[in-house]
Design brief:
about 210 residues, alpha+beta, 2 domains, 6 helices, 8 strands
């Protein structure tokens, strides 16, 4: 894949191995391609001749189908407000499936963690069936965290650290986090093209 993209004139992003970019200095047009397993998404200015040209060249090298302008990619819903130059990304539909699967449909809460909860290692050996159920829950939460919900990152990492020998307390915290997601199920990532700001994140220093 990398050899193919380089041959088309793309460069590979150093910070993310699945991202390639093509910048035309003359026209100042940028085309970005995101590759994930057997899915690829080309992004650029709508109607760009360069975007279409690069996409056609890629399709001549690889057997694939052009799905046109998409609103879905890897369970992420993508919508646009062209007038205000905003892009919205969410995983609401995937999240609803997760909540139904783990039977979290009532009692929403507005905190990702129960108050004063402290993660403690499980002193006993967990049941294999329970262990599998816990892994499924944490795996679903990881996918949400990576895709569109960085706000749950701290709790998800803590839950993942208990993956080898989880307890009922750990599972209950996972369900508590699901109830937080139930309360905030319509949250979106918003990229504003007019404010000229870079990506900003906040973290508790300790």
């Amino acid at each position: 894949m990398t050899k193919s993209m380089l041959a088309l004139g793309f460069k590979r992003c150093k910070s993310d191995a699945g991202v390639y970019y093509y910048y035309d200095k003359k026209t100042k047009v940028l085309v970005i391609a995101i590759v994930y397993v057997n899915n690829i998404c080309f992004m650029g200015t709508k109607g760009s001749l360069l975007l279409n040209k690069l996409k056609q060249k890629f399709m001549a090298r690889w057997e694939c189908h052009d799905l046109g302008e998409t609103t879905e990619f890897l369970d992420m819903h993508i919508s646009h407000d062209c007038k205000n130059q905003k892009i919205f990304i969410d995983q609401c539909e995937y999240l609803e499936k997760v909540l139904v699967h783990f039977n979290v449909v009532t009692n929403p809460t507005h905190t990702p963690l129960p108050s004063e909860f402290s993660f403690k290692p499980n002193e006993e050996q967990c049941d294999p069936k329970f262990h599998q159920k816990y892994q499924q829950l944490v795996g679903s939460l990881i996918y949400l965290m990576i895709g569109s919900r960085p706000d749950i990152g701290f709790v998800v990492v803590k839950l993942a650290q208990q993956m080898t020998n989880s307890s009922n307390d750990h599972y209950r915290v996972g369900l508590h986090l699901c109830r937080y997601l139930l309360a905030t199920c319509r949250y979106q990532l918003v990229y504003n093209g007019l404010n000229n700001e870079s990506l900003v994140a906040y973290s508790d220093s300790d």
